[in-house]
Amino acid sequence: MSFFITNLILSSKINELINPYSMKQMMYPCLWFAGNATEAVDFYISIFRDSRILSANSLVTFLEIKGQKFMALNGRPDFEPSQATSLVIECTSQDEIDQYWEAITKEGEESMCGWCKDKYGFSWQIIPENMEKLLFQSANAERAVQAMMGMKKIDIAALENA
């Protein structure tokens, strides 16, 4: 019996080494809210289809959005979010960019180059999944960067045609 258990544990460890996607997430952001974390979590859950609450109490809520773990903390109003840190959403289509942009900026703020803030003050970048290719690896990369500098919400076609 112990041979079987040892092999099972070894198999699990080997699988983690071979398949990094099977590993437990070791880092995740803690989002500090001024007492309205529950409201914010409900807002985020309403925006992202693949999301769920993992556990919650009056101080902390752990949630998962598209496979990414987050902690939402009901803190005091001592700290505010900063634009120095942003959450990046990679989108597969212009429709997806439009959907997230509309939901996040509805009571938030638009900024430049795909950046925006939600109503809780957290900064987001809503970008196409091929943004790196468009801005760094395509023949028209320099023109795409210039086009992006004039955008608020990212327009994929405009970047591709720059």
TrEMBL record:
Show the Gene3D superfamilies listed in the entry: 2,3-Dihydroxybiphenyl 1,2-Dioxygenase, domain 1
Q: Which Pfam families match?
A: 3-dmu-9_3-mt (PF06983)
One GO MF term: methyltransferase activity
Q: Keywords assigned by UniProt? A: Methyltransferase, Transferase, Ubiquinone
GO BP annotations of the record are: methylation
Q: Which InterPro entries match?
A: 3_dmu_93_MTrfase (IPR009725), Glyas_Bleomycin-R_OHBP_Dase (IPR029068), PhnB-like (IPR028973)
Which residues belong to any copy of the PhnB-like domain?
A: 27-127
| Keyword Transferase part of the UniProt annotation | yes
Q: Return the PANTHER family for the record.
A: PHNB-LIKE DOMAIN-CONTAINING PROTEIN (PTHR33990:SF2), PROTEIN YJDN-RELATED (PTHR33990)
- What's the protein called, per UniProt? 3-demethylubiquinone-9 3-methyltransferase
- In its UniProt entry, the species of origin is given as Sphingobacterium spiritivorum
